[in-house]
Amino acid sequence: MTNAPLHLWEGFSGATVQPNGVLFAGLDRKLSPLPESTDAPVHNPSLNLAMRFQVSGDFEINITATLTAANSTYFLFHGVIPMVQDEWYYAQSTFKAQIVNGDWCYWTMYHPDNTESGNAAASVGTNVVYTFKREGTELVFLTNGVEVTRQSDMCLFADGVVYLSLDEANVGATFLVTQITTTGTVEETPVRSVPKTSGTLRDKAGKFRIGTAVATYPMVFDEQYRTILGNEFNQITPENCMKFQFIQPARGVYDFYESDKLIDYAERNGMEVHGHTVAWNEATPQWLWDGWLDGSITASEVGEILDEHIERLFGRYKGRMVSFDLINEPFLDWTDQLRDSVWYQALGRGYIERALRKAHEVDPDVLLFINEWGCEEAGDKQDFLFNLVVELQTAGVPIHGVGLQMHEDVNAEYQRSWRPNTPSVTKAHLKSAIARFKSLGIEVRVSELDINQYQNYADTPKAVADWYAQYLEACIEEGAHSFTMWGFTDRWSSLNEWYDYYTHGNGLIYDAQYQPKLSYRALSNKLDEMARSLSSL
């Protein structure tokens, strides 16, 4: 047996490395539906995805623990890195064991084709050894040597890798891990710099910011993802790890582990960080919604919570971020009404000014953006955002830029009467929008570009590639602050459906096997064409 180094847990949320082991404390971090939703809160994957084991054939992993106050302790063994979005979590090829009250085990096996689950009594005392192993074509989970369940392995670990994650669901409940042993090889996964090559998007862009949203788990664990990311882009936006519900999963409890990793990766690879986001109703943690609605959190406390959160987040990364989507999607659909968020209900329209002033006070060098969808072409919603910026400027509020999201579709149902392969936003629309907002003296960025393809005609990939190139050209010609796509590979894409993850989305510039698509080549060629313009930046 090989001992797994427990120091790998150092810095994890809810994990404290002690002389005799690692103490895990539950944070109750979970995805939070809006109050009107009938969906129950969905727990995120365990916060503590730290270890990766290389295995072959039969293998065994033993976890020795002391349960000090564990009520619902999770042990998850992943054959594929979990997928996390702000709305959902997908455990891909995973065996999950949940020990409840120290004597009962609920187990679930997640597989692309089917999911198996069950429950059984478990032999668990104050001190326990959990064992997970593969024997032939079966997976076995034991507690103190007593078999809890034995199931067909369903090829969950066919890739020869096991990722281990641990968590405690209940706030304040803890368990101490004193030893982990394995028949496999333990791989340490520090954040790394990656070698740079010439001829990449980043290389050709020069000083122009070409960026992507980043999923933290593959940034750390997936070598192909990590290498392409550091080689092709000079700016990154955290896809999820800086959102309010991820940073402060329980009141006054902060989780900076993943965002620390992202900042570290950016600095090691000479990349700028554009932060995302604080005030967004869809990323409001459940504890804040519940407290506000039941009256245990007052309006004045909501304001204090907003201030404190900004102080902690912007204070921690002072001088390490260039810009930030402080306010995300403030408008309700296509109206000039603000979304009915906790912030708006408690603080009224003034929550936007309050957040901007506080963030600028903490770090005056960070450019503060309002990020919104549906404002890329002329119309009422663009007017609403324009007028909001003017209102803030008139009041002397520090507002430095707007983000135009640009989640585009081609051949969707609502476009059935359109000419095939036509998105709603043209190059002329985008150039006009950039110029209009820049006339206010602020920055403008394309912030979340993807082009979701529905019905595919023979020429759809080429048409989509042309649109990517035209949008990039518009940004360079009009002096946009940056050009950012909402991810770069279909393998890790918000366009993937939570209920059918393995049917990947198709709206990004690399496919699910990390091969560059026509859209990538179109961007690369466009940068070549505009080399003279880029050299003057």
Automatic annotation (TrEMBL):
Molecular function terms, GO-annotated: endo-1,4-beta-xylanase activity
Q: Which domain of life is it from?
A: Bacteria
Question: What's its EC?
Answer: 3.2.1.8
Give the catalysed reaction(s), semicolon-separated. Endohydrolysis of (1->4)-beta-D-xylosidic linkages in xylans
**PROSITE patterns found in the cross-reference section:** GH10_1 (PS00591), GH10_2 (PS51760)
InterPro entries given for it?
A: GH, GH10, GH10_AS, GH10_dom
Q: Which residues form the active site?
A: 448
Domain GH10, first and last residues per copy: 195-526
Cited Gene3D superfamilies: Glycosidases
Q: Which family does it belong to?
A: Belongs to the glycosyl hydrolase 10 (cellulase F) family.
The record's Gene Ontology biological-process terms are: xylan catabolic process
Q: Which SMART domains match?
A: Glyco_10 (SM00633)
Q: Which UniProt keywords apply?
A: Carbohydrate metabolism, Glycosidase, Hydrolase, Polysaccharide degradation, Signal, Xylan degradation
Q: What name has this protein been given in UniProt?
A: Beta-xylanase
The answer, when asked if Signal is one of the entry's keywords, is yes
